[in-house]
Amino acid sequence: MHTSHDQVGDSDETLQVCFYLYSFEGVLTDEHWDEIDEYRKQQLKAKIGSQGDAPNVFGSGDL
Fold first, then answer.
1. What is the rounded CA–CA span in Å between residue 26 and residue 34?
2. d(CA 46, CA 41)
3. How far apart are CA 45 and CA 59, in angstroms?
4. Neighbours of 17 (CB within 10 A)
5. How many other C-beta atoms are found inside a 10 Å radius of the C-beta of residue 37?
């Protein structure tokens, strides 16, 4: 479930990346992705946004 504050862009791809990012963070911190506070979500989004030409680790989206 995505809430409006999780939407950082208009594309489904952006929402998918945030979902995977939050899910991975939740695994690492042993908490549900939806329990991650907004400040930490902003930190994570800023971190991946600053990667510039980083490769697309999530594939082409053709699942």
1. 8
2. 9
3. 18
4. 19
5. 9
| DSSP string for the chain | ---GGG--SSSHHHHHHHHHHHHHHHHHHTS-GGGS-HHHHHHHHHHHHTTSS---TT-SS--
Integer Rg of the chain from CA: 12
**Chain segment 11-42, per-residue pLDDT in tens:** 677 777 888 889 999 999 999 988 999 999 99
* pTM for the full predicted model: 0.55
